[in-house]
């Protein structure tokens, strides 16, 4: 029998919408509110200068924070966020976003997200405040 975290990970891995369009892969979910998401930088995800578009990196962070929040089995949406870009991501590389829970309350939670490329260069950091809607993921999948 699958554990709840395995069920939630499968839901995140099979998600349609923007996750699928951008070929984002939810690699891990942790019971303590963590997640790892990967993205291969293809030409479609670059800006006109040939680097990862800021929106691409931001979306990667948002998916990571949302996945981490979902690890509790409760529907969460982004309430607020900010991001700091340090280095460009380059075509043909893989970006990895690792999200971890900093603080969780009954209605909101704060997640820190770090983005690195495959050479372990620090690309960006982000902070996301997530709002719990009160619905469970079971409500959304049944």
UniProtKB/TrEMBL annotation:
<feature type="domain" description="Thioesterase">
    <location>
        <begin position="50"/>
        <end position="121"/>
    </location>
</feature>
<dbReference type="InterPro" id="IPR052723">
    <property type="entry name" value="Acyl-CoA_thioesterase_PaaI"/>
</dbReference>
<dbReference type="Pfam" id="PF03061">
    <property type="entry name" value="4HBT"/>
</dbReference>
<dbReference type="GO" id="GO:0016289">
    <property type="term" value="F:acyl-CoA hydrolase activity"/>
</dbReference>
<dbReference type="InterPro" id="IPR003736">
    <property type="entry name" value="PAAI_dom"/>
</dbReference>
<dbReference type="InterPro" id="IPR006683">
    <property type="entry name" value="Thioestr_dom"/>
</dbReference>
<protein>
    <submittedName>
        <fullName>PaaI family thioesterase</fullName>
    </submittedName>
</protein>
<dbReference type="InterPro" id="IPR029069">
    <property type="entry name" value="HotDog_dom_sf"/>
</dbReference>
<keyword id="KW-0378">Hydrolase</keyword>
């Amino acid at each position: 029998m699958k554990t709840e975290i395995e069920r939630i990970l499968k839901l995140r891995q099979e998600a349609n919408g923007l996750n699928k369009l951008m070929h984002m892969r939810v690699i891990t979910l942790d019971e303590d509110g963590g997640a790892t998401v990967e993205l291969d930088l293809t030409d479609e995800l670059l800006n006109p200068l040939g680097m990862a578009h800021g929106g691409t990196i931001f979306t990667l962070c948002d998916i990571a924070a949302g996945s981490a929040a979902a690890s509790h089995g409760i529907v969460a949406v982004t309430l607020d966020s900010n991001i700091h870009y340090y280095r460009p991501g380059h075509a043909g590389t893989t970006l990895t976003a690792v999200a971890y829970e900093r603080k969780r309350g009954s209605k909101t939670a704060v997640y820190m997200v770090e983005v690195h490329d495959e050479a372990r260069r620090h690309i960006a950091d982000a902070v996301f405040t997530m709002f719990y809607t009160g619905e469970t993921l079971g409500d959304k999948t049944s």
